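Progress report, Aim 2. The chain analyzed during this reporting quarter is listed below.
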Amino acid sequence: MTSSAEVNIHLRARSRDRDLIDRAAEAAGLNRSQFMLAASLRAAKDAMLDRTTFEAEAAAFERILDWMDAPAAPEQAEGMARLKAAPGWARE
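Predicted structure tokens for the chain:
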């Protein structure tokens, strides 16, 4: 599915930074806008994942608690077993 852009995002940069971005975009097979949008979205997702406090309305919070209390699906249990077996996860 292809979506068209709905808004513009403008920023100013030093020419040497733009040149570096252009070289990286070309190496990735993207144009500058595609490269910068992809990098910005990754950074935004990482920033959101790094949050430690989330706010939710009571009904949504109850659904989250129900989900967390539910037994793990087989693929989730398998993934957790692999994670626990990975180096660095062993408890002493």
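The radius of gyration is 21 Å. Residues 15-85 form one domain. These observations will guide the mutagenesis work planned for the next reporting period.
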